[in-house]
Amino acid sequence: xxxxxxxxxxxxxxxxxxxxxxxxxxxxxxxxxxxxxxxxxxxxxxxxxxxxxxxxxxxxxxxxxxx
Length: 67
Description:
Elements (H helix, E strand, L loop, with lengths): L1 H14 L6 H45 L1
Helix pairs in contact: 1-2
């Protein structure tokens, strides 16, 4: 994952023909990966919350039918 992101950043910077250093490329790649990780965690949290809500709704429906 890191290697792919570094290659992506390097190719992007090469097109922009900037004199960016290797350490800057690594920092940008690490920040991109961290950002993607945060987005994945947010999506996962929303997914789990949706499952929780649907499960609670299903339990309430079952309880109302059984009682």
